[in-house]
Amino acid sequence: MLEKLRFASKGLINHFLQESSISSGLNLGLPSYVLIFLTSRCNLSCRYCNICSQEAMQKQELTIEQWKKAVLKIKAWLGNYYLYITGGEPLIREDIFDLVIFCKKNNIKVAILTNASLLTKKKIDRFVSIGLDELNISLDSVIEEEYDYIRRQKGLTRQVMKAIDYINGRIVIQITSVLTKVNLRSIPALVEYCDKKNMRLNLNPLIPNLFSRQNTRNLCNELWTSDSREIDACFDEIIKLKGRSTTIFNDKKHLELIRAYYKYPNKIISSFTCPRGHT
For residues 39 and 66, is the Cβ–Cβ distance under 8 A? Predict the structure, then answer.
């Protein structure tokens, strides 16, 4: 319990310092979590992501032993922190369990970001047994026609929901949804579903893939919405839901920022810089 309190206190302090960094332009805080790309391979070909086409990256994967050294070096810098493992689809790597076990032994909290299509009962049971802290599952809509279309995988919506049912509260779940023209109007139904399942919902804007040369002008025209009236109507409803429920993880300020991004994308992007820089 004491360790959890220390971790939470550290997170709150770092959050305050990071917010101050953004507003002041000064480099004040340390990261409270780290995200690693375990693989760029993916078993899906989603309409808003082209990571599966990055063949050069697929030949540059680190081994689990290399990742173990990396996470310990990060711990030497940050102390205890939250590690988010993503991809591609990280569950393609069968040795992911070894990395999770190693992290837990070294007092590093672990979350896995997954499309859940490879999340079998056997894998879920093993993640429960080794103490995985969180599964961050992609689910853009509970309406099959919408989500299956976005992910180009018929039956995926039911498959993801069955996995969530099987987990049944044994692992903390956060749902991540990308807001697009296809699912924007059905977000209230997704909020209701998450509320019933006691899951947080994190709403994300449609942005260029980290490893691609996409920009907002050519980014998935079939998914981008530029109808200001529709944007305002949908975000007004989402913000109302935020006020009535604790399910939506984003704060109101963040939701308003996403609204502005859809209306004035290039202006919003150009106004942001990372306080830590990037390479």
Answer: no
Give the Cα separation of 124 and 19 in Å (integer): 36
How far are the Cα atoms of 174, 259, 267, 268 from residue 213, in angstroms, in the given order? 29, 23, 18, 18
Q: Supply the angle between the helices 252-263 and 228-244 in degrees, to the nearest 10.
A: 170
Distance CA 128, CA 210 (A): 30
User: What pTM was estimated for this model as a whole?
Assistant: 0.84
**C-alpha–C-alpha distance, residues 143 and 190, integer Å:** 9
Here the tokens at position 88 are 């591609």
Q: What CA dihedral angle connects 245, 84, 273 and 72, to 10 degrees?
A: 140
The edge-to-edge listing of strands for the beta sheet with 82-86 is 33-37, 82-86, 109-114, 134-138, 172-178, 200-204
* Cα(154)–Cα(117) distance, integer angstroms: 11
Residue 117: half-sphere exposure toward Cβ, Cα within 13 Å: 19
Q: What is the mean pLDDT of each run of 10 residues along the chain (279 residues)?
A: 49 50 55 90 86 60 96 93 94 97 97 97 98 98 97 96 97 97 96 97 82 51 88 97 94 95 82 55
pLDDT digits over 47-99, tens only?
888 766 555 555 678 999 999 999 999 999 999 899 999 999 999 999 999 99
CA pair distance 21, 27, nearest whole angstrom: 5
